[in-house]
Every structure is written in structure tokens, then in C-alpha cells.
Amino acid sequence: MTTDATPPVVPLPPGVYDQLPAEDYHRQPALSSSGARKLLAPSCPALFRHEQLHGRPPKRVFDLGHAAHALVLGCGPELVEVDAPDWRTNKAKQAASEARERGAVPLLPDEYAEIRAMAAALREHPTARALFDPDHGRPEVSLFWRDEASGVDRRSRLDWAPDPGPERMVVPDYKSTICAHPGELRRTAHKYGYHQQAPYYLDAVTACGMDDNPAFVFVFQEKSAPYLVSVIELDIVAMNLGRDLNRQAIDLYAHCMQRGVWPGYSSEVELVPLPGWVERAYEMGEL
Predict the structure, then answer these.
(1) What CATH number does residue 189 fall under?
(2) Residues 6 or more apart from 260 whose CB is under 8 A from it?
(3) Which member of 102, 246, 251, 256 has the greatest number of CB atoms within 10 A?
(4) Using an 8 Å Cβ cutoff, are 76 and 30 in contact?
(5) In the chain, which ranges are E strands?
(6) Is 252 inside any structural domain?
(7) Residue 276 domain-assigned?
(8) Tens-digit pLDDT profile for residues 150-183
(9) How many domains does the chain have?
(10) Pairwise CA distance, residues 287 & 278, whole Å
(11) CA–CA distance, 122 with 227 (Å, rounded to integer)
């Protein structure tokens, strides 16, 4: 359990911000979709609070994801190509460290080539190309609003904000992944809480007056050649489940903020069974 004061950051007024730097967005104390997911099991408020105060350590998987976003969306951090075969030498490590210090993403030459190939492949997909059309939208738009039920300040950063028009607004979100087959994406969406992200972002769009009835789709792209793409929309059951979990997270956040206490896992001894499939296999004599 952790107890501490809220970080002394002045909240931005509710609204839509087109050119807010990423670091300024992430410093805002408002609750994000990723934060809402971090509050709930298998995580907990203590882990959420630690990450909120101290940030996340850099990971290569984050570097590659950020780089893909930058080339696909045409907006994002500087990409720095480090002329080295790998990251094992001190020179390469130093170059990577210097790049990260100024907010850039370090890439090896083969990684940079792969990211460029991904961006080119995505532009060949007709639906994805239309969703990220630079003539009809803008990247990296930050939205801030207040939750009426709890009074909690909330925030979202859209990968892409389509220009308003006579038709229903369709908000796309880009994800790189190992496998973009729709059947596999069912598990991916559940594992990473994308069924919470989608309704959270739709709340942002409606609360900020961008569209009264928007839709939200994910554009998944595989990270290996030929860099296949799938565009999916989660069904109503997934969206309803995500909305319910988001409400739990928002109310939990409000409770923790009010008390100034961020509990970890249970302090009691927990009785833990094996997964159901193991029990079934044992009963069938398969173990």
C-alpha cells in the first residue's frame, strides 16, 4: 500500500488540443485509458500509482511501437538510426541513451528499414489508407474532459482525429502486433484491455463534442513481412464489458484519490486453484 500526495501539476482545462507535446500530455494528472486498465486486476492501485509517479522504464518493444506510429501517422518522436549491428557495444548503448534523453527513438539500421516497410505496406491497404488520410484528419490529438458521475478528470490521446463531416465519425487506432488474424485478435484485445480502450476513447470524442455517435476501429499490423493488416471493430458485448470495467476503474481512482491510499494486492492469505483446464485434464486422466 502506498500513500502520497497528488503530483503538483496544473490540470489543463477540458477541451481538444491539437499540438500538445506527448510529454506534456503524459504529465497531466487526469486518468487515461491505460491508467484505468492499470488500476484493475491483474494489476492494482499501488502499481498504477508507482507508474504514475515514476513513469515506465524504456523497453525495446515500446521503441519499435513508437517508431511505427511515427512513420504511419506522420507525427511523433524523432527517429535516430544508430549505425551498429546490435546494441551490445558501448558506443551503440551510448547513442541509444543520448537519443532517449532528448525524447528520440533509437533504431538499428535493420529495424529502421523494417519500420519503413511497415508504413509502406499499411498505405497499400485500402481501408487503412482511407482511415489515416492526411487530407481528412490529423494525428496525435489530446482530449480532456471531466467525468460527470465521479468528478474525475479524464484524458485520451487519439492516434488520429478525422475531420468532422456529414457521415458518422470513425476513429482509428494503430497497433503493431505479432499476428493480425482476426481470430487471434480476440485474444489480443482481451490481453491488453483494448475492449476498455475503445469505449474510453469514444467517451472522449462525445464529451468533447467532436461527434455524437462515433465508431472506433483498431488497425492492426503485423511486425514481420509482408506486414499484413486487419481492421476490426469490437462487438457490442466487448464494448459493454469494457464500459463496465472502465466505470469500476474510474470509481476506484476517485476513491483512492479521496483517501490518498493506493492499495496493493490482498494482505490476507489467498487460496489459489490451478487453471480450470488443468483440473479438467486431470479429471480426464490426461495428466
Answers:
(1) 3.90.320.10
(2) 3, 4, 5
(3) 246
(4) no
(5) 2-3, 15-17, 79-81, 105-107, 137-146, 153-162, 170-177, 215-222, 229-232, 261-262
(6) yes
(7) no
(8) 999 999 999 999 999 999 999 999 999 999 999 9
(9) 1
(10) 8
(11) 8
